[in-house]
Amino acid sequence: MKVTVELDCTPEEARRLIGLPDVGKLNESYVKEMSKFLQGANSAEQLQNFTKIIAPMGEAGLKMFSSFLTGAMSASSTGGKSSSSKKKSD
After folding, report:
1. pTM
2. Is the pLDDT assigned to residue 85 strictly greater than 50?
3. d(Cα 68, Cα 74) in Å, to the nearest integer?
4. CA dist., res. 19 & res. 13, Å (int)
5. Residue 59: which residues within 8 A CB-CB, separation 6 or more?
6. 9-38: buried (b, 16+ CB within 10 Å) or exposed (e) per residue?
7. Mean pLDDT over all residues of the chain?
8. Does residue 71 or residue 87 have the better pLDDT?
9. Which of 62, 25, 54 is nearest to 38 (CA)?
């Protein structure tokens, strides 16, 4: 059996529907502070040091996140179907 539910709502309405907190102000503050820092960075070394501070697990965390994004992009371009996952017929 397959059930499909379609909701027509804004991202804000969806956030409230599932009970997620409003992080709009936090996001604005974060973007503002990041912009200030990036404008003051004079060298690649400063950026690299900052990345090590804010990134959990340092460079390994960034590589893991990058591979996650790459996998998500390839899955979305193939429609989320991989060659190894086949549907069982009942």
Report:
1. 0.40
2. no
3. 10
4. 10
5. 51, 52
6. eeeeeeeeeeeeeeeeeeeeeeeeeeeeee
7. 77
8. 71
9. 54
